[in-house]
Predict the structure.
Amino acid sequence: MSTINIQIIDVAVDKQGKYEKMSVSHKLQLGGTWKTEGKAMVDFATDPDVWNTLRKATKGAQFIVTREKVTGKDGKEYWNWVKLEHVGEGGEVSEAVEAKPAAKADSFAARDDVKQRYIIRQSCLKAAVDLGVHHNMGSDAVLTVAEEFVEWVLKGE
C-alpha cells in the first residue's frame, strides 16, 4: 500500500449498460510538484465509499489517496484506490491544467499509464540502438543514451 496526494480537476461518470465508468482528472503531487493525470475506474471494482466520495467531489478538492497494487485478470498490476481522506479545498486549479480535458475512461493514458511508459522506453531504445550502430557504441552507452531520450520525452509531463 502507498498514499498519494491529489487535487480534483474533473470527475465524469458514464453509464455502461449494467455498470458505470468513472474518469477522474486530477493533479498528483510528486516531490513537491503537481502533475496532471487521469484515473479510470468502474463501480463494481471500486470501494463504495471511494466511489461515492469521488462522485460528489468538486474541482479543487484535495485528498490523500490510499492505494494498493492488485493483479488484474490480464496478469497486469494496477493501483486500486481503497481509501480517500479529504484534506481540504485547494482553491482554483491553475489555468494551464484547467485547459486540459478530463481523461476519459477509454483514453490511452487513463487505461494504462504503465503501458504508455513501456512504449516510450521501447521506441527510445530503438532510436538509441540505431544511433549506436552508426557510432560503434557499446551496449552500456546505448542504454545510457536510451535513458536520456526517455527522460527528454517525459520531461514535458
